């Protein structure tokens, strides 16, 4: 088996380079990410504060501060800007560290679960490979979502709770409680689902009930302490009143993102198709080679149930999005890998001496290498908002002395422009023809005429014109 490990490691490396690293280091971000980076960049320059982070002078959703997410993730990113500077690669480096941390933690969980099982230990690469081929995972790293940082804390908490089944030391549930707090401090309520791990361990007879009850109490106690402190501090209490009771409650009632609660279930099934298909095919081919036992299968069931516990509660509301599933995906990868490994241990149809398998490996490595080369040629090109980013770079010398950039009222919904102006140029955006510099989107119908006195700048732009008041 050790002779076969270079192939999966090479496959994993090439896949990550082709579908995560290269897109990650191209300019352009998902809308939520542009806001996160703008707010964190502002914090690094002292614009706003930890409990009162600010997006721009107009804010988001008419709030006086940025209440979209708890402050930990944004604050951590702001520290990277302070240390590493303003380059667009700073946030890319930050998310790359999240990827590395998540891969290391998935591997650590595998090696902890099978610490006494030499055969399974050698397959620690398998859950990593299954994890990265889940479509929403590659998209989320490319899109710079805070779910990736929350996943770090969630995986760390589960690792600690599993270690508590192997040791009586209280340090493990205490550390798990800290990690669950950090998960909620990064992305809010979705970070709570590891609280159910001790209960699930007891149900699966992996831990006795008294220990599970004790650990649950420790988790809730560790989680409660900082929030009790927060709600007794004016600044933090105001933030959470706005975040929980104004922003979150209002959206749950008035701003649904889906029409049916089953969206998450359908989306989960679609995201798991690659992993489930690979598992089913290999099990079918090698069905006579399996060496699984009930203990190993119970581990697989535990992690699959944990993935379900992190996914299906999302159906309680009509605020559902695909990337909300991201923190649960490592556990599905672990569960499917545990189901799959017994069918790979024994040499069989998938053995290294099989000609079909050898040719298949050569084809996969060659194909991924070609994809890496092709994608590498695009690394200097934006993968999103290409026209906007190009035009802002072209026009930036004309507004370098202006603190506020204006645009027509019809462009109010152009959050990408607002975010890029704040992130890359430290410029606020306001609306109406009221300032010395106005950016106009040539592809939208203006609700007001360009007033006399404004002159169009003769710049080589693709979509956006700049008008300067004479």
Q: What number is the mean pLDDT?
A: 91
What is the number of strand segments? 5
- Give the amount of beta strand, in percent: under 5%
For the largest beta sheet, what order do the strands appear in spatially?
A: 3-5-4
Question: Would you kindly provide a brief summary of this structure?
Answer:
It contains 20 helices and five strands. With 470 residues, it is mainly alpha-helical.
Could you explain how this protein is built, in words?
With 470 residues, this protein is mostly helical. It contains 20 helices and five strands. It has helices at 6-24, 31-44, 72-84, 89-113, 118-121, 126-132, 135-143, 147-163, 171-187, 197-203, 209-230, 234-254, 263-271, 273-285, 294-309, 329-340, 342-345, 355-376, 386-395, 415-425; strands spanning 404-407, 428-431, 437-441, 454-456, 464-469. The protein has a three-stranded antiparallel sheet, with helices on one face. A two-stranded parallel ribbon has the order 1-2. A hairpin with a 7-residue loop joins β4 (454-456) and β5 (464-469). The longest helix has 25 residues, at 89-113. 37% of the residues are buried. The mean pLDDT is 91.
